[in-house]
Amino acid sequence: MKTAVVILNWNGQKFLEKFLPNVIKYSKNYAEIIIADNASTDNSISFLQKNFPEIKIIKFDENFGFAEGYNKALEQIDAKYFILLNSDVDVTKHWIEPVIEMMEKDEKIAACQPKILSYSEPEKFEYAGAAGGFIDKFGFPFCRGRVFQSLEIDNGQYDDATEIFWATGACLFVKAELYKNIGGFDNDFFAHMEEIDLCWRLKNAGFKIIYCPDSKIYHVGGGTLPKSSYIKNYLNIRNNIIMLYKNLPKNRLIYTFFVRIILDFIASFKFLFDSGFLSFFAVYKAHFNFYRNIKKHTVKRKNNFYTYRKEKNKLSKIYNRNIAIDYFLLNIRKFSDLKTKNFN
Questions:
Q1: What are the beta bridge partners of residue 124?
Q2: What residue ranges do the domains of the chain occupy?
Q3: What parts of the chain have a pLDDT lower than 50?
């Protein structure tokens, strides 16, 4: 059984210096470690060649982004399991074994993620994944342990292995055959939301996404783009509505998009006051880009449903309310405060 830990790097020498030693220390007996470099302009490559000559490097001559960068790297790697790992992650002892053991026991498990804690505040969950991801019925993502910007302290409240809707791309365990059969990440996403789209397609095909609390890592987060970045806001909104269009069943599509237009219009003014005009403009640019390319997305939607969607498979782990209303109007700050009956 071959497992490959694949780190996609872009100008991340400082993270490689800090975190790669532990990746090697706690992975070398269980997995091959590979660095895929997105045309870095820092000294990442020379640093690796000098200090870690045993590490395989896949070099690209341009920055393909997160989605296509991983696709291009993974098509060159022969393994049963891929572990997609951000360069700004500090792994711990036995971070691989419990996840692989869980996936080996159930052929329906397509992807998993570990418990993800904050590197800077290790007592708290980290934004990008926490204890497993979910979406509400309008496509807004949140996590066990993180709702919008509210991060919970880890008191063991999410130490149960459970099915989730999406596993984070910061540390994504996925069966290689299923990743390739499903088409991998959507190259057009470039970065952000691609792992949610991937997990949704895997669920459409009848597979499960699981959270494994027995594996624990610490994530810096925001290593490439800060949370307030105009580009990050644009990519998140654009990719989210592309994802909805590709994956929603026909009977929910029109209503969901109508409500999302209203919600995004409201959100744009929050961005205006919080981050300025560029973040306000990002909302409208994202919608314009989606509708300008809707023919291409329609082809993807048709291929998705004709190839992967099992109509009798009712999707699980979708929150059937609007998490934004619950958070901003009802003051719900913890995942544990959401009522179980409101999930599929």
A1: 153
A2: 3-219, 230-313
A3: 223-225
Of 3.20.20.150, 3.90.550.10, 3.40.50.1110, 3.40.190.10, which CATH number belongs to 3-219?
A: 3.90.550.10
- Tokens for 1? 């059984």
**How far is the C-alpha of 255 from the C-alpha of 5, rounded, in Å?**
41
Structure tokens at 323: 């998490």
* Helix residue ranges, H only, the chain: 13-27, 44-51, 65-74, 97-105, 176-181, 194-204, 230-247, 250-275, 277-292, 294-307, 323-328
Label residue 156 left, alpha or beta by phi (over 0 means left) and psi (-120 to 50 means alpha). Answer: left
pLDDT tens across 2-56, in order? 999 999 999 999 999 999 999 999 998 999 999 999 999 999 999 999 999 999 9
SS3 40: coil
Copy the structure tokens of residue 343. Answer: 């999930």
Name the strand (E) or helix (H) holding 218.
strand 208-219
Pairing outcome for strands 56-59 and 141-143: unpaired
C-alpha–C-alpha distance, residues 301 and 320, integer Å: 22
